[in-house]
UniProtKB/TrEMBL annotation:
The lineage of its organism: Bacteria, Pseudomonadati, Pseudomonadota, Gammaproteobacteria, Cellvibrionales. Keywords: Hydrolase. Pfam families: Hydrolase. Transmembrane segments: none annotated. The keyword Hydrolase applies. This is GMP/IMP nucleotidase.
Amino acid sequence: MDGTLLDLHFDNYFWLQHLPQRYAEHRGITLDEANRQLHQWFNEKRGTLNWYCLDHWRELVDMDLLPLKREVGARISERPQAKQFLQFLADKGKRRVLITNAHRAGLALKFSQTGIADQLDLVISSHDYGYPKEHPQFWRHLYRVLPCSPQRALFIDDSEPVLRAAGEFGIGQLLGISQPDSCGPMQSHTAAPLLRCFSQLMSDA
């Protein structure tokens, strides 16, 4: 979702700028000290389910993250043409399944800001299974509840490790996102072809 249907700018801004400032204020430490502590945790948690778990981060920083996210919630936005693409899929009779590492509480906030939930047929969070999308077990659980032909499925994601895990499971059609954060750099990797905008898929179909 984040970096695919939604602009990753909100998440990057929250975790790299807003949270460090609020954590420094909460702990009575300098911003540099707050960044050092948070980045240590980032490096330890990245790629695990706890990396995406708001309950886990609440315990670490001793603050409820949802109110902090709401403070900058105006930055939550869809990527260009995301809603048009979802409608395009519906018009083609395709099932639109959101498979995300996002915590359910964070999902609710972003859905309330964007309304994209109305254009999805099913929403699956990795927290439902206890494994992030980077882990093979996630895909095994997914296949049990979402029977389909993996070779025929199209999976779009902004994360290279996630795309590689999906490919190893057998998802036949993979696409990455060339610029998940509208204010960030272009991506470059070999896990999957990179998509610049959804109009490429709508015009090629």
